[in-house]
Amino acid sequence: MPLKIPEFILAGMFVKGSLESRGGGFRFALKNSYAAATLYDLELEIDGAAVPPGRLSLRLEGQSEAVPLTEIGEDRPFALPLNRELEVLVSEGTPGTGKLRIRVLTREVGPLAFSVKSAPDARRNDRWPGSPALARLLLPGLRAAVAVNAEDPIGTADPNLFGHFVEHLESCVYGGIWDQQGQTFHEDVVRLVEELAPPIIRYPGGNFASDYHWEDGVGPRDGRPRRYNRAWHVEDSNAVGTDEFLAFCRRVGAEALLVVNDGSGTPEEAARWVAYCNEPADGPAGRLRAANGHPEPWGVRWWGLGNEVWGDWQIGHTDAAGYVRRIRPFIQAMKRVDPGIRLVAVGLDHLENDPRGAADWNGTVLAGIGAQIDCLSFHVYQPSEEGYLPDYDQRALYRSIVTAPLNVEDAILRMAAQIEALVPGRGVRIALDEWNVKLPPRPGAASMHEQEYTVRDALYVAGMLNVFQRSCRVMGMANLAMLVNVLGAIAKRGEAAPAELTPVGLPFLLYRDMEPNVLRCRVSSPCFAAPALGLNISAKSEVPWLDASATRDEAGRRLVLALVNRHPERSMRVSLSLSGFEGHRPSRCRRLAGRNPLDRRVELTSPPLPARRGARMEMPLPPASLTVVELESSQTAR
């Protein structure tokens, strides 16, 4: 299932001014600033005429010798890492008018083709097309209502729905949580992670896991081998490994979800990892762990059985039946070491009309190993690459993004129905263990993972967290991708720069104090229509401007409400009807908002507490905002 990378992104890899004659031929350069790739072939046309392969050679920045194209193939691939120039040398001919058509064949995404003639237009409309501030103040406000009943529960939310994800990718680990050498923590980053209080953190990937061998990353650091990771085409020092990561989890109070390598690893390797983490110190693996400074078992409960093996880009890519056959010995070997571990199997997102065959994939996995797993996973980055455009109507894009969580909610319901049909009563839950909003990178970005998030994206995250709570009966875990720098909840832009929470991280601060028991919110609100965008955001015709979630503690003394005003420009007054909470009074109110939906400076404030009159409470909400209000009582709710 290859990804579709839009041609405007590929064309942006052409290095401006690099096309020049040289000797009897010419050269030009490409700079891959999207994602690491493995080239099997390259074809070139000049003004519509094909250049014979024998005239082409490739040289990666930093290499002294060029590689003839005739020496590259599936059995002899050419690695193209991020942010290193690829020089394309043509031994004979002229560049003509400079109109180039380039076709490449890659392992990760199959064939790609794009044309270049000059540097692409680097301008992009990232400004909100709104009215002046005074005009916005004169817009009439919206009216909405929410009814919450103490006796109308949905279910209990697993704390792991607020999880995060750390991968050895770009500057998430080295230069993010740790310094560039992986020797010491960035203390400002760790303090922010402690504020977010993630209940669980997934590690070490992601794609990275499919070529990661954990034994390279334990023992004295000066004895650990540097390894080239074929998934991301980078060399990893292994300075950060199992013990360092689990020590980090222990410090910030998080559980770990460790993903085993089923792509290039073995069941025995995975079983040894379980033993290293969980065996007492008197066993062989436990003695090794103790010798490395950790006599007490780490007690890792959660283990992922590979990553995205349905994808062509994944090392160990296979079909569902092949995955089931391959993973059964992993399950047996790992459970033999520790029967109490909990397992997350690889699933696929079940989109509207199922364009990717998720029903077949998930059905095969559930039929094959459903009795042995605890969660079936899927991943979602919205919009999919099919929705990438060189420029957007920002109003239409805003509506699509803030509506996108509802498409995830639909996918959760489809997967839950299939789980119930195929493994009823087993308690298999859904793990959305990678998710985020991800738009085309801005011109000049270092990779597809370098995003500049805004108020709009904070509301997307709030919408997702509301979906997770509404889906608490069938969901067991969710992990924002990622924790630091790479699509990060936290940004650390250099050793000297202070770490800061990004717009996609800030909502987790507000939701951190939500209670476990989720109540149904009956919302009455004006609605809007949202256009489709890519494969995973379908059009919606009746989307309420107000989104809401309500939770209470077990004793019923505390009620926490999350209210999202999705309207980009109009304020909203919400009438809250609280049945069974007559003795509860507002105790704290926090708000996330900005000057407009594309403001990157998201403000976190504490507005005045709303007044309560009887069973009702009025709550004013500014445009494009998230408000979390807490109510407390000394008495138990009815």
Structure description:
With 638 residues, this protein is of the alpha+beta class. Helix content is 21%, strand content 29%. It contains eleven helices and 34 strands. The strands form seven sheets. It has a ten-stranded mixed sheet with strand order 31-30-34-28-27-24-11-29-33-32. The protein has an eight-stranded parallel β-barrel with strand order 12-13-16-17-18-19-20-21, surrounded by four helices. A hairpin with a 2-residue loop joins strand 32 and strand 33 (616-621). Helix 8 packs parallel to helix 9. 47% of the residues are buried.
List the topology elements:
Elements: H1 7-11, E1 20-22, E2 25-31, E3 37-46, E4 49-50, E5 56-60, E6 67-68, E7 78-80, E8 85-90, E9 100-106, E10 110-116, H2 133-137, E11 142-156, E12 163-165, H3 187-196, E13 200-203, E14 227-229, E15 234-236, H4 242-252, E16 255-259, H5 267-278, H6 284-291, E17 302-304, H7 320-337, E18 342-345, H8 358-369, E19 375-382, H9 394-422, E20 429-437, H10 455-470, E21 475-481, E22 490-491, E23 500-501, H11 506-511, E24 517-524, E25 527-530, E26 540-544, E27 546-552, E28 558-565, E29 572-579, E30 585-593, E31 603-605, E32 612-613, E33 616-621, E34 625-632
Parallel strand pairs: 11-29, 12-13, 12-21, 13-16, 16-17, 17-18, 18-19, 19-20, 20-21
Antiparallel strand pairs: 1-2, 2-8, 3-4, 3-7, 3-9, 5-6, 5-8, 9-10, 11-24, 14-15, 22-23, 24-27, 25-26, 27-28, 28-34, 29-33, 30-31, 30-34, 32-33
